[in-house]
Amino acid sequence: MSVMPKSSDLYKLTATAAVKLLKAGKVSPRELLDAAEARIKAVDGPVNALPTLCFDRARERAKKAKKTSLLAGLPIAIKDLTDVAGVRTTYGSPIYADNVPKQSNLIVGRLEANGALVVAKANTPEFGAGANTFNPVLGTTRNPWDTRLSAAGSSGGSAVALATGQVWLAEGSDLGGSLRTPAAFNSVVGLRPAPGRVARAPSNLPYDILGVNGPMARTVADVALMLDAMAGEHPADPISLPAPPQPFSSAVKRPRPPKRVAFSPDLGICTVDPEIATLCRKAAAELTALGVEVEEASPDFSGAYEAFQALRAMRFVSAREPLLKTHRHMLKDDVIWNIEEGLRLSPSDIGRAERERAALFKRVAAFFETYDLLIAPAMQAKPYPVEKIYVDEIAGKTMKSYIDWITITFAISVTACPALALPAGFSKEGLPVGLQIVGPPRSEARLLAAGALLEEMLGLSEQVPIEPRVRP
């Protein structure tokens, strides 16, 4: 917007534009808090993205917001898996229905130190398990493009809040696609950063590299801005990385196109809805107008499926086995199944999974010596009826488990490479389709630059925020 927006239109601003106004003193944090609260009241009912609000806490903190800070008093949402001090944080589980942490996660502390004002907790499935956002504590989150459909997950609340203009930035997390899939389902942007890029603590799995936390927003520039506010090493996180010499936002302001890009419709290992593959292929081909070579190619992802399933199950045992013993009756079936799958693993199984992961990483590293980036769909299926727990069939192929339908994202997680989810277009039904851009380890700046160029060429970022399309 080139002119000062009316207070009733502040929710339409990008985060970058809103921060610019905050820094210039043309809008105050209190005005943005009022705008966010009004927008949540107006649109969240049909979609249930932000079931837990904390505006009183945010207004107290707004009194100390500094214009010189990176976010300068911008309201944001935090996923309900991430602790916020003094705010109900349920993890989507009845076991923690009344949990109010005394200490914020380091992620929240860093964002707040950089001027963010946390106004809400975004809904998530129980312990983030499953790519459909529902839980017995806070209910079901629905897709604003058609409220009969799933918003995906597990960062579904964050994605829907962004798509409907309830906040300008939202935190997400990604183990097997939990940030990328909902971004794709809701036509917003999300970045799965390299492990360690965003420091987190306390954590009961401090050395884990499968699960990461990252930024979500409506534009690539906004994602870069939030990543700058999240990134940096910390002694409480043993794998944390230092912030780069140049801010990530600079890669978006002066983006350089890659030279050679690979596109794969299915990574050679999974079934993808043909319309999704076609739309993503067409979007990737747009880069040829910038002189980029776009070729159909992929690393060899054989073994990625088996490695992820084993490593994920082992992770469930590490994080949740005590709850299986003490609160089995309060856990959902998929969580119980995943813990028990992990308990069935032998040392040999775990050793094999680690060898598969190592071999895959070696192949992917060699692939990126030839190609700057890999582009693939960020989703295998279109948004589906929200009552279904998961997608059980794609193009005639039966899915074996509740996470098989996100193989295209969890295969990337195994590599530890960063990935940016970006809107690619809309299906014939008018539903969002998203792609993911994958780069070598710790190449977030490269991803953001390519994403900014592609975003401008596709012209889809102005499609959000939207009013929820309520279907009976």
Characteristics of this structure?
single chain, alpha/beta, 11-stranded mixed beta sheet, 14 helices, 14% strand
Description:
This protein has 472 residues and is an alpha/beta fold. It has a single domain, classed as Amidase signature (AS) enzymes. It is built from 14 helices and 15 strands. It has helices at 15-24, 29-47, 55-62, 106-113, 156-163, 180-186, 220-230, 248-253, 274-285, 304-327, 333-343, 347-367, 407-415, 444-458, and strands at residues 52-53, 74-79, 116-122, 134-135, 139-140, 169-174, 189-192, 212-217, 260-263, 293-296, 373-377, 393-394, 397-398, 419-426, 432-438. The strands form three sheets. The protein has an eleven-stranded mixed beta sheet, with helices on both faces. A two-stranded antiparallel ribbon has the order 4-5. α5 packs parallel to α6, α7 runs antiparallel to α14 (444-458) and α10 packs across α13 (407-415). The radius of gyration is 20 Å and the shape is globular. The mean pLDDT is 97.
Write a compact overview of the structure shown.
With 472 residues, the protein is of the alpha/beta class. The protein is built from 14 helices and 15 strands.
List the helices and strands and how they pair.
Elements: H1 15-24, H2 29-47, E1 52-53, H3 55-62, E2 74-79, H4 106-113, E3 116-122, E4 134-135, E5 139-140, H5 156-163, E6 169-174, H6 180-186, E7 189-192, E8 212-217, H7 220-230, H8 248-253, E9 260-263, H9 274-285, E10 293-296, H10 304-327, H11 333-343, H12 347-367, E11 373-377, E12 393-394, E13 397-398, H13 407-415, E14 419-426, E15 432-438, H14 444-458
Parallel strand pairs: 2-3, 2-6, 9-10, 9-11
Antiparallel strand pairs: 1-3, 4-5, 6-8, 7-8, 7-14, 11-15, 12-13, 14-15
